[in-house]
Every structure is written in C-alpha cells, then in structure tokens.
Amino acid sequence: MWDWIQLRMFNLWGWWPKVIKDPRKRVMMRIYGYCMFGLDSATMIAEFVSLYLAVVNGSFRGAIVNIVTTTLGATAAMKIYTLLVHHEFISHICNTLEDLNNRAIALMGEESQVTMGTRKRNCKLTFVFVGSCLFTVCHYNVRPILVYTLYGERTIAMDMWTPWDEQTSLSGWVIVLIYEWIHIAAAMYGMVVFDSFVLCIFEMVLAEFDVLKIALKKVDFAAEKNAVPIEFCIQFHQDLLVLIAKINDFLIPIQTFQCIMLTLTICFSGFELVSLSDVSMNKAANLLEVLGASTYITFGYCYQCHCITEECVEVITTACDNNWFEGSIKDQKSLSILLERAKNPISFGNIIKFDLGCFIAIIKTAFSYYQVLEAFDIH
Q: Which one of 111, 226, 278, 331 has the minimum C-beta count within 10 Å?
C-alpha cells in the first residue's frame, strides 16, 4: 500500500497537522495552515481587480494572461480549501483502502499483492510531475530578481493590483514580490501535491480491483471448503464500490471546475500564442507551463476515472471465468449478487462525465472557442 507521502508534504504549509502527535502543536499547525490559505486567497482579490482593470482599460487580448493565471489560482485555492475542510473524509479514504488491503492479505497472503509493486511505481512517477511543476514556481519567482539584477528594471512575478507603483517605491516592490512569492509557491505546491495525492488514490483503487480479481480467480465452487469464500468477494466488492461512490461525490466540484479551467486555458493560451505577434518569450513560457500542467492534471483525472469504470465491468468477466456452474444454488445466487452490481459500473462525474471522452471533448471545445475568437478578432 502506498504510504501517502503527499499528506506529510502538505504539512509544510500546515495543511495536514494530523501527522503531529502533540495536540497543542497540532492546533498551532492548523492555525498556521489556515493563515497560509488566507494569505493565498487574499491575493486572489488583487488578481481579480487586475483582471477587471485590464478588461476595462485595455483590450481583451491584454487580459488573456490575467484570465489564465487567475483561473489557475482559483483552482489551486479550491483544492487547498477542500483539503482543509474535508480532512476527516480524506483520512477515511486512506484508512478504508488500507483496511481493504489488509483483509486481502489476511486471507490470501502476499499472493494478493502481485500487482501492488506496479501500482506503487506509478504513484512514484507522480513525483516527477510534482517536481516539474515546482520548477514552474521557481521560474515565476526568480525572474523578477534576475531582471532587476541584469537590467535594473523592476517587474513583478504576476499581474496583480497594488496600492502603489512598484517602479517608484523600492520597499513597495519588495513587499509585493514577497507577497507574490508566498502566493505562487503556496498555490502551485498545494495544487500539484493535491493532484498527485488524488492520482495515487485512484491508483490504489485500481490496485484493490486487482486484488478482487485475484480473489475471484481463486474461488473454487467445486471444493467443499473454499480457500477464498465467495462471500468475501461480495463484501469486498461492495465496500470498494461504496468507497468509489464517495470519492466521486467528493471530487465532482473539483473535477467540474478543472474541466472548465482547462477549456479556458487551452482556448486563451492558444489564441495568445498564435494570434499575437508581440508575445514575449517570458509570457510564452508562462503560458506553456500553465497549459502543460493543466493538461496533464486533467488528463490524469480523466484517464484514471476511465480505468476505474472499465475495472468495474472487468469484474463480470473475471467472475464468470470460473467453474461457477459446479457450485451450489446458494453460491450461484451469491455470485449473481456480485454480477448485478457489476452490471451498473460507477461513472465519475455528474453533469460532466469524467473519462477519456470528456478529455477529448474538452480539447475540441477549446479549439472551437479559439476559432470563434479568431473569427471575431477581438481587440
């Protein structure tokens, strides 16, 4: 079972104080976590003001980068808020997966863990994603210092409204930079580690489906005493489906907003990069970094949801690929319960169905909106 290292990583910002045993320190860390979230969220106000001013005083094209970064920041704030508010449910998910895995090991031993190594390796690969996204944070935060050192020009990491002009106030420029550094680091760190954590949850759910299929293959309906009772498989399957349904309800708001965010990001980023002739290298790099991270995250969610839905159907094939016809009437009735549940696989999402078809639809929709913008040639 994956050790959920992401939860320990969250505590750098005070967002998962459960790892601290001292109750007083845990409360202090919780307060620190809410303060960091409040600081991150407060910056969103300045971003929205900057976006409004860019639209009112300038052209739509001038506000495109603001729209992309503000939408990304809102997504990050939503995920951090979810982590803070639903920490008990997140613990429940981890504990339930651990319990399912322990039940399988207790009955079948290490034979039930033949695919766990592959699943853990897939979880480790998400840290490559985390590292690449944190590089984006470095690019955003270090650039103003490099520009000031090399050219003496005061720039800020991202467009946001400030009560003073950073070009005339050195202290104001430093304050804005520190404020933005904390905001960007907290937002990107919280978002990418949260997404890495969710992708690992999906991977462990798939691992438990592997365990269930191994158990179904070991059921011998002709034997007088079964090493793996069919009742174990039925209960295991039921508990797994209940957990998946809860995870689905938990992630619907996040995934829905994420799909909308990716559509806007692809549309506006593509329009900015292709339609404008004066796009700076820095702006192009920022847009490509945001676009790449957003696409990877959304694809990962859609792909894993698609795999889980397919595994729900795969249970039917595995259950029937056995000597069920040699079993008693009672065993066959028990097996029919499992098959009836598997006939209605869980689909992630509500208004939007999250699977590979959803990801393809997002790409198509984004390019359709891009063509509309290009046709109107908005200024």
A: 278
> How far apart are alpha carbons 379 and 375 in whole angstroms?
12
Q: Specify the DSSP class assigned to residue 227.
A: S
* pTM assigned to the model: 0.85
Query: Which phi-psi region, left, alpha or beta, contains residue 4 (left: φ > 0; alpha: ψ -120 to 50)?
Result: left
What is the full DSSP assignment across 335-356? HHHHHHHHTS----BSSSB-SH
Q: Hey, what are 201's tokens? A: 């949850």
- Tens of pLDDT along the chain (379 residues) come to 677 888 888 887 788 877 778 888 888 888 888 888 887 777 777 777 776 776 677 655 556 666 777 777 788 888 888 888 888 899 999 999 999 989 888 888 887 788 788 888 888 887 777 667 666 667 777 778 877 888 777 777 666 556 556 566 777 778 778 877 777 777 777 778 888 899 999 999 999 999 988 888 888 777 777 778 888 888 898 899 999 999 999 999 888 888 888 887 787 777 766 665 555 666 677 777 777 778 888 888 899 999 998 988 888 888 888 777 776 788 778 778 878 877 777 888 888 888 898 889 888 888 777 676 666 554 4
- For the chain, where are the alpha helices, taking DSSP H only? 5-10, 23-57, 64-85, 87-108, 116-151, 170-218, 230-275, 281-320, 329-342, 356-376
**DSSP secondary structure string for all residues of 160-204:** ---SS-TTT-HHHHHHHHHHHHHHHHHHHHHHHHHHHHHHHHHHH
